[in-house]
Amino acid sequence: EAGVTQSPTHLIKTRGQQATLRCSPISGHTSVYWYQQALGLGLQFLLWYDEGEERNRGNFPPRFSGRQFPNYSSELNVNALELEDSALYLCASPRERGPYEQYFGPGTRLTVT
Amino acid sequence: EDKVVQSPLSLVVHEGDTVTLNCSYEVTNFRSLLWYKQEKKAPTFLFMLTSSGIEKKSGRLSSILDKKELSSILNITATQTGDSAIYLCAGSSYDKVIFGPGTSLSVIP
């Protein structure tokens, strides 16, 4: 069974631009969680999508948004990039609906200059 | 506000030592306590502890959940250099997962 995949691996943007990150969960899994891991900080919960709907979001401004497609893959969009958005963005796919054991993708390293 | 605290934040031990990592949580509508190991990028799942499963063991790693004290410990016996990593603890409710800052473990030969 294929694991969680994310693309791109690295992304370099300038302040004010928009970034789009993609994630495909494990086949058959309907939920996708997004996390931000900034340098020196722990994983911060960003968004949870399940069966195409946004189920919950963390304490992030509205310029962090996303969507989930019918095939359960997901996209995270970050608008009006700021320097502090530089971080590792991780996507996770739980085995069951809800925040149970989650399987993480390799992450996208976003650098904002 | 939901939060997860881990201690120590950093730890250096010698191969063969036993270590205990601590985690305390305050998560509204708590459902489970999760432990992960993060070496380079993606965290890898270690244990999930719930009200129906408060103790887990896998090889040299074991974990216990104390529901009364809202805490958990992760024990690693006979540490090896390959155990060097950041160990993350997370408390989850139905609709969110709150991670702690992690404990950075370094095992030296």
The whole-number mean of residue pLDDT values of chain B reads: 93
Low-confidence stretches of chain A: none
The N- to C-terminal Cα distance of chain B equals 41 Å
Helix-strand pattern of chain B: EEEEEEEEEEE
Profile the largest sheet of chain B.
6 strands, mixed
Count the strands of chain A?
A: 11
* Average pLDDT figure of chain A: 92
Binned, the helix content of chain B reads under 10%
Stretches of chain B where pLDDT is under 50 for at least 5 consecutive residues are none
Helix fraction of chain A?
under 10%
Oligomer: heterodimer
Q: Write down the overall geometry of chain A.
A: globular
Helix segment tally of chain B: 0
What composes the largest sheet of chain A? 7 strands, mixed
Number of strand elements of chain B: 11
Give the topology.
The complex is a heterodimer of chains A (113) and B (109).
Chain A: E1 5-7, E2 10-13, E3 19-24, E4 31-37, E5 43-50, E6 53-57, E7 64-68, E8 74-78, E9 87-94, E10 102-104, E11 108-112
Parallel strand pairs in A: 2-11
Antiparallel strand pairs in A: 1-3, 3-8, 4-5, 4-9, 5-6, 7-8, 9-10, 9-11
Chain B: E1 3-7, E2 10-14, E3 19-26, E4 32-38, E5 44-49, E6 55-58, E7 61-66, E8 71-76, E9 85-92, E10 97-99, E11 103-108
Parallel strand pairs in B: 2-11
Antiparallel strand pairs in B: 1-3, 3-8, 4-5, 4-9, 6-7, 7-8, 9-10, 9-11
What does this structure look like?
The complex is a heterodimer of chains A (113) and B (109). Chain A is mainly β. Chain A has strands spanning 5-7, 10-13, 19-24, 31-37, 43-50, 53-57, 64-68, 74-78, 87-94, 102-104, 108-112. Chain B is mainly beta. Chain B is built from no helices and 11 strands. In chain B, strands 2, 4, 5, 9, 10 and 11 form a 6-stranded mixed sheet that branches. Chain B has a 5-stranded antiparallel sheet with strand order 1-3-8-7-6, with no helix packed on it. In chain B, strand 9 and strand 10 (97-99) form a beta hairpin. Chain B is globular, with a radius of gyration of 13 Å. The chains are: A mainly beta (113), B mainly beta (109). Chain A binds chain B through residues 4, 33, 35, 41-45, 48, 55-56, 58, 88, 90, 98-107, and chain B through 31-32, 34, 36, 41-45, 48, 88, 90, 92-102.
